[in-house]
Amino acid sequence: MTSRTRENKKLSTARTLMRVYPFAKSARNRIILGGVSALLAGVVALAIPLVLQWIVDGPMRSGDVSRLWPAVLIVLALGVAEAVFIALRRLFVLTPSTHIEADMRNAFYRKLQDLPVAFHDRWQSGQLLSRVISDLSLIRRYIAFGIVLLVVNIVTIVIGTAVLFYWHPLLGVVFLVSCIPVWIYGYVFEQRYSKVARLSQDQQGDLATAVEESVHGIRVLKAFGRGKFSLQKFAKQAETLRGTEIEKAKAIAGIWLWLLLVPDIAFALCLLGGVWLAAADQLTVGQLFAFFATAAILRWPIESIGFLLSMTFLTRTAIDRFFEVMDTENTVTDPENPVSLGTREGRLVFEDVHFRYQDSPAQFPDLLDGIRLEIEPGETMALVGLTGSGKSTLTALTTRLYDVTGGRITLDGVDIRDMTREELRTHIAMAFEDATLFSASVRDNVLLGRPGLEGEEAQRVLDEALDIAQAGFARELPDGLDTLIGEEGLSLSGGQRQRLALARAVAANPAVLVLDDPLSALDVDTEALVEAALRRVLTTTTALIVAHRPSTVTLADRVALLENGRITAVGRHSELLATNEHYRYVLSSLEDEEARERRESEREERQLSRDAERTVGR
Amino acid sequence: MTPRTVEGVQGEERDDLTKEESRALRRRSLRLLGSLLHPLRWQVVLTMLVIVVSTAGRVAGPALIALGINEGLPALVDEQDWMPIALIVAAYLVTGAIGAVLIAWYQVLAARVSQAILIDLRKRVFLHTQRLSLEFHESYTSGKIIARQTSDLDSIRELLDAGLNNLVQGLLYMVFTAVALVLLDPVSGLVLAVALVPLAALTRWFQVRSQKLYRATRVASARLIVQFVETMTGIRAVQAFRKEKRNEREFAQLTEDYRYANTKVIQLFGTYDPGLVLIGNMTVAAVLLVGGFRVIDGALAVGSLLAIVLYARRFFDPAEEMAEVYNSYQSASAALEKISGVLEERPSVPDPIKPVDLWKAKGHVRFDEVEFAYTSGRVVLPGFTLDIPAGQTIALVGSTGAGKSTLAKLIARFYDPSDGRVTLDGVDLRDLHPKDLRRAIVMVTQEAYLFSGTVAENIALGKPDATQQEIVAAAKAVGAHEFIAALPDGYDTDVNKRGGRVSAGQRQLVSFARAFLADPAVLILDEATASLDIPSERLVQEALQTLLADRTAVIIAHRLSTVAIADRVLVMEHGRIVEDGSPAELIGGEGRFAQLHAAWRDSLV
Ligand SMILES: Nc1ncnc2c1ncn2[C@@H]1O[C@H](COP(=O)(O)OP(=O)(O)OP(=O)(O)O)[C@@H](O)[C@H]1O
Ligand SMILES: Nc1ncnc2c1ncn2[C@@H]1O[C@H](COP(=O)(O)OP(=O)(O)OP(=O)(O)O)[C@@H](O)[C@H]1O
Ligand SMILES: [Mg+2]
Ligand SMILES: [Mg+2]
Fold first, then answer.
1. Nearest chain B CA: its distance from A146 CA (Å)
2. Domains assigned to chain B
3. Which domain does A412 fall in, by range?
4. pTM of the shown model
5. According to a count of CB atoms within 10 Å of the terminal CB, is the N or C end of chain A lower?
6. To the nearest whole percent, how much of chain B has pLDDT over 70?
């Protein structure tokens, strides 16, 4: 899914641009100063023709060489001033613009980390990435020179037109009137361009997603030799983007056409009118000269309006896209008056918990449809159920990765929504079914949940956790516990990763351990060792352990059976096995085992008799 | 060739390149640029032509105005003759219109060229990263590749979009303007020529300084992206272990590094740009002075002086844009350096030069004196020989980290052995045609990765031209049909990124169906049922029994129930195969497997 949930009411471009203001507030003065500098640069540039006129009509006509020098010096001074003002503009605006970009980037990242998992389920990471990189740098460039130039150029055009009027009203009017079509076309352009601009930015995000998946899924693609195939898909997306970009170019070509043509027509008319006026002695040659010099200076601002406008609309969509994420309401938030647990015991209670995923169709029942379960302090509860029954979902609810949609979960009697997420997550630590490790040393990965620890204490916790998870192998890595692992470090085997993830959860020293199928990638021996060690920890720690295998279940004091969104049975393993049909179905491989043994012995018998026959035959 | 120190992606993050290294990198990126432009040369020529003509039209403007004042005005004043001025105005209109239309056309042409280059580059990088071996991907993170394909390509696009336009246009404009100026008044032309000296010096200064700074921005932005991607990929763990604050600090530091690198570049440009304006304005003053004297002397017409001053000024008009172009060129060439580096990487598991075809594989796999190490010095699989006859089903068991997956990956040629050879039907995998290899050998990896897209698409990855029936049949065979049918849109349900929409067990079922559909001669299952519940696992086993009847299979599993369907069991410890025999033999014996099996039996209910 590519999330293109657009705001239902469309803000005007100016209003959208203003939304960046809070980030730009501190830099406001410098931006204004930058604008003033740019304006002065423009004014100075416009003043040069005035001097030219004066030279043509003065010294040149009179042939007074002594007056030529100061005039040229003035032109020179104005020229230097222009350069200085341009330098000042850059000085004032550029640094603040990079700060604005950085602030927005950090805010975006902060927001994303704060948003719940449900948001991340919905959003492609490429879409997020294109926002945090391309869109923000576009916004920066717009602040740095787009908006300044736009304002300044428009002001320059206005002043310049006034100067034209000063040279001769008629010529000024001709010039002004011929510019009207440009403004009309500008409006048409906005409509057309904004649409393709948005489309192209979204498609770029999709493309980034495709790239990301192609690298993350590289093993699958290699295993099936589908590199070329995925290239085709990627190429198709890239082609679509190309189409959009060409559309964009056509829109830009349209506005360029007008912006170039109109001043040309205006110039031609002015030339005609100017010569006629000069012939009629209404205008001196010097004035005509200056008129064109002024008009020449106006040409660039007028032409620049084309790309400045397109940049404005691009920025507008970039801002839209940025705020689409920033405006997302966080549904999993900290309470206003958070409650803090005093002494923690670790009693975890599910009270009529309901949950459904956001995209679940209305006719479907809740995935978790009234869970009632009490886990006593220090107790180890196994959670058992078929694939897809909602076990992982249930575990994710305990640390508020998702919020319940009905009922409540309490920890030591406190609704977990009344605590800050930060605190809740110090009390409850998880090991996920896929062991995500970060690019950091083994040490940092395992001690992830204990940021404050240092020195000997840290080493002790680390050693203990590694011992419990049977992750001693980490000490034999090239740099021991300081070996970098994760994406940027050494790759580990599946079971090694899983054990580190388990060690990480244990090291967090929580009141409640939530382990989602924590032993699935371990061999029987290692599994037994981990279990023995875990048992020691679990005498004092409450635990909820998702299990698929009888071997894991035996770790638990009691077992809860999840069936059709409810806990249909809770009890000791042997009890349930004896009394509960579904439990037997889910967990027992005995019948299977017996059948196999029968087959095996049959095969052996056959083999024996065949051997016997052969011996006899010989 | 590129010096070893900067070959491929090596030394990518260094900022202390020697002159020679730096030159080598530039050559490499120019080669890449050349190869990108080559197929488009006629389009480029056409584009140039259009821009030459249109620029000529625009440059004619001041000359016509000068003509109007010099000729048209006197004619009107002296002879009441409207003709000359009317003609001049008409000419002005026509050239202006042609210029405008051509420039608009040019916009589209240029976009075509730049988009063609981009798409070519995108595809090349994509295909090449697919071709590079896992070894590369393990050290070069996904974030960096994403950075290459996004932010680096962005800066190249910037150059192509604005750059090409402005460069060609600006350059021509300057040349035409200069020519017009020289024709009009050689003396002023001389003044302009003198002005070119400081211009060149300033540009050279900018070039040398900015190159290094731009490299730094590329490195900083890649780091930023890497951190961002990692956070978003592991968001659950980030939140569950309260890593947000720490991440925020790290990210803020990276943002600051990037910002700082950017500011440095911008500041440099902040000197370059006004410098150009200064040179331009001083030239105008000089031209005015030189011309002024001659007008007073009567050696020059006033109209001509107007044209000269306009030209002189206009000559520097595009300078600012050209500077921008140059700026984005520097940025793009830093990006091209990085991209060309990735493209220069040679896969450590290369495609054969003379591939051997194997139309119909029987499935006889053999390890011949194979030794393997991921990194030299840390041997994971010490030398061994292993023969797997066609059609045999092998169970590969052993403690975690023993090297089971590694052995399996050698069969699938994810890596090449450090020593010895792996063969399929007697053909060294290194010589086998990649297509045949992938058709014959399929591996279901330990991580069940699903791509965003529908369930059906994910299964069809095993066989892209599969019909809906075949897909459903495969799903049914592995027992995935039921859950898929229960999804909101059945087979057309989007599984979200990384298959987050379905449960872990369901993901495994889908990857299993995928392999089932691929129908290979050799099937490798690396803990493909680890996350399944027992009933589903049982179903899968049944499916396997029919599926594996006539093919070679290597099944890695910790749940020894799999052993039931195996003909032969291999037990691995510390990279060595310590036991090898039929299940009955081994269970009956007293070795490692007998002990494992007993332990496993005890764990059952
Ligand atoms: N992000 C999601 N959005 C929508 N539906 C989801 C999402 N994640 C899971 N589901 C659905 O919810 C159901 C329960 O998923 P869950 O991961 O909790 O199962 P599970 O019991 O852990 O299974 P397994 O044993 O395979 O891990 C599944 O049917 C799955 O398709
Ligand atoms: N890409 C890699 N680079 C370097 N070392 C690796 C890599 N992959 C695995 N190893 C190391 O090689 C050894 C064997 O790993 P392998 O993945 O083959 O184990 P395994 O038997 O499959 O274990 P498991 O049952 O845990 O999956 C381990 O010590 C592991 O750390
Ligand atoms: Mg699960
Ligand atoms: Mg493995």
1. 13
2. 3-344 (1.20.1560.10), 365-445+521-603 (3.40.50.300)
3. 348-357+364-436+511-617
4. 0.88
5. C
6. 99
